[in-house]
Amino acid sequence: MSENSIEEQKSWKTLEKRISDILEDHRCYEFVELMKSPWRLMWRNFLAGVARGLGFAVGLTVLAVIVGYIIIGLLKPLLTLDLPVIGGLIADIIRTVQMQMNGGM
Asked: How many domains does the chain have?
């Protein structure tokens, strides 16, 4: 064998080793194994979707509760005020409802 051929073989082996190391670092073998089993892939995607859906629901619920408490906290002082316009409006509504319930207009 010539010296060039030996160096070329060493170069190829070095390149092969580097590629192998890169593939192991990026865990490509797991991806290949996953692609061999479509049911396993669908199951993992289903579980991921369920987890995302639950996370969305819980997060939205927490956010709605926080916003609700903030709004109630801001409106509570307004509700305790005795505003004549609002009181008159509510009295008119109550009168109208009572008249409708009694059958008269």
From this structure: 2
